[in-house]
């Protein structure tokens, strides 16, 4: 466990180095080298774990070690290529820390940073696809079928919709494969649907997902939402007639 004073030193030192680095060039400096070495050790530890679930748990355990460094880079960085920051972004997506991942994604996309070569995808695609997959996983997780459980799901879905909308805005102009963008719209549709009272927005995103990829798996969801909206419209019309 690092002391507050140590974390402060790491953040300030990282900010100073990142603020004077050349945009687009590899990041350098004492704190970068130390955290790159720590990242190498962390990756070696992860390679020895076979279980995906246990890998995620280990990443969650390891990530705080990099928080102060990342905070410093985001605070003052000018866009130097930083494999530590980009790896942390992806690991945050892996563990479900969507807000933390998006904070880095906004910085990375603004400066055009690339993910390390081992990830084999560009930054916009990683942000869109992994965030969408994690959001859908969370939305499909079992929950208590009680008023409290349903309220918790709606609140979680509202937060996911916010993160997904931010990701969609950040990657809107990026060139990426249609199936990847379709996943993002599918996740947005599912999140809006789970919030309750946002069927029209959900339907719009699911239709967009289907237009981008006819195998995205939302046709039945679209049909169900169309019926719900039609029935809701008929009910509204009947109520209006009764009150006239």
TrEMBL record:
Residues 1-10 have a biased composition (Basic residues). It comes from the Bacteria. Residues 1-28 are annotated as: Disordered. InterPro entries: Phage_P2_GpM. One of its GO terms (molecular function) is DNA binding. This is Phage small terminase subunit. It comes from Halomonas saccharevitans.
């Amino acid at each position: 466990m690092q002391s507050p004073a140590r974390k402060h030193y790491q953040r300030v030192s990282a900010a100073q180095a990142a603020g004077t680095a050349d945009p687009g060039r590899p990041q350098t400096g004492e704190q970068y080298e130390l955290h790159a070495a720590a990242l190498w050790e962390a990756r070696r530890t992860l390679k020895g774990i076979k279980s995906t679930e246990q890998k995620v748990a280990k990443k969650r355990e390891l990530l705080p070690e990099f928080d102060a460094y990342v905070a410093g880079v985001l605070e003052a960085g000018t866009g130097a290529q930083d494999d530590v920051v980009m790896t942390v972004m992806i690991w945050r997506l892996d563990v479900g820390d969507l807000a933390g991942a998006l904070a880095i994604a906004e910085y990375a996309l603004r400066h055009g940073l690339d993910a390390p070569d081992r990830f084999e995808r560009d930054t916009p695609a990683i942000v869109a696809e992994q965030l969408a997959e994690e959001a859908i996983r969370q939305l499909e997780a079992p929950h208590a079928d009680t008023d409290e459980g349903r309220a918790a799901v709606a609140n979680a879905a509202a937060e996911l919709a916010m993160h997904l909308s931010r990701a969609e805005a950040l990657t809107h102009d990026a060139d990426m494969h249609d199936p990847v963008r379709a996943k993002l719209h599918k996740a947005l549709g599912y999140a809006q649907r789970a919030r309750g009272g946002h069927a029209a927005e959900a339907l719009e995103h699911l239709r967009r997902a289907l237009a981008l990829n006819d195998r995205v798996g939302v046709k039945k969801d679209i049909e169900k939402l169309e019926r719900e909206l039609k029935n809701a419209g008929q009910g509204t019309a009947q109520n209006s007639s009764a009150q006239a």
